[in-house]
Write a structure and sequence with these properties.
membrane, 0% strand, transmembrane helix, mainly alpha, RND transporter, transmembrane, 74 residues, elongated
């Protein structure tokens, strides 16, 4: 469980797996644009790709929310 709560590892995952491949644009950004444009032609593998590359950012948001709620509860 420590792995899912380690800021350094989560940030590293966001900067590498979350944004890879980097050229010509971050992969996740391209998928988000595709979804925002209506997701026409997206196959199951494309949706899996969004989840795979987006998961590190979900973990980062989770850590931020935990930090904020613990600060407010204290």
């Amino acid at each position: 469980m420590k792995l899912l709560n380690d800021w350094k590892i989560i940030l590293l995952l966001c900067l590498t797996l979350g944004l890879a491949p980097f050229f010509p644009e971050p992969h996740l950004l391209g998928k988000i644009r595709w979804i925002a444009g209506g997701a026409n032609g997206m196959a199951l593998k494309d949706w899996f790709d969004v989840v795979f590359h987006g998961f590190p950012f979900v973990l980062l948001i989770r850590l931020i929310l935990i930090k904020l709620t613990r600060k407010n509860a204290a």
